[in-house]
Design brief:
Layout lengths: L5 H12 L4 H13 L6 H13 L3 H13 L6 H13 L3 H13 L6 H13 L3 H5 L1
Helix pairs in contact: 1-3, 2-3, 3-4, 3-5, 4-5, 5-6, 5-7
Length: 132
């Protein structure tokens, strides 16, 4: 991993401090998306996690969509964050779509994500699918 840019370092430090507000996260995100070369996916994941700790799940999903639209290549961490919050929003079908992306990319799922998938399917009344 290369040395973080000043903006990435600022994002990392602010996320560690847990003092970020929603408008600050969105400002950093918009700045990062406009940079060329793009910052590392790791810095984006930090912002996603900061939002999730604030329980701004719809904003996490929107930011992930914006990342896809800006050709920011996801890593397993970002996709797992997305799957978990889609399930929190009761968007199980969309979560399954992302899960298929993970499998097609050959990435490994962690037990936490598998549990979220199982619970999401059960909550949607898809117990048979969950058991498979």
């Amino acid at each position: 991993m290369s040395k973080p840019s000043p903006l990435e370092k600022l994002v990392i430090d602010k996320c560690k401090s847990r003092s970020l507000k929603l408008d600050q996260v969105m400002g950093y995100f918009n700045s990062m998306v406009s940079l060329r070369p793009l910052p590392s996916i790791w810095a984006f994941n930090r912002l996603l996690r900061a939002l999730s700790k604030m329980k701004h799940y719809p904003t996490v999903v929107s930011m992930c969509k914006m990342m896809f639209c800006n050709d920011i290549q996801p890593d397993i961490c970002m996709l797992i964050i997305l799957v978990n919050y889609l399930y929190n929003l009761k968007m199980v079908d969309l979560g399954l779509f992302v899960l298929v992306m993970i499998v097609k990319l050959g990435l490994q799922l962690d037990p936490y994500t598998m549990n979220a998938l199982f619970l999401g399917l059960c909550n949607k009344g898809k117990v048979k699918a969950a058991m498979e």
